[in-house]
Amino acid sequence: MNIPLIRYNLKYYGKTPNSAAPILAFAVFFFINYQAVNSPIWSNYYITAMGIFVMSNWIAVSFINSEEKTQQWITRLHVRNDTAFHIAKIIAILVFMIPFYMMMVCYPLLVGMFIRSLTFAEIAIIFTIHFLFSLMGTAIGILFNADLHNIKNDYVIPLHVLIIFGVAMPWASIFENNILIRYAVFLLPPVNFLAQSMHTLGDGVYRLDFNFMVFVLYALGYSMLLMVVYFLVIHKRSRR
Question: What pLDDT score was predicted for residue 191?
Answer without folding.
Answer: 84
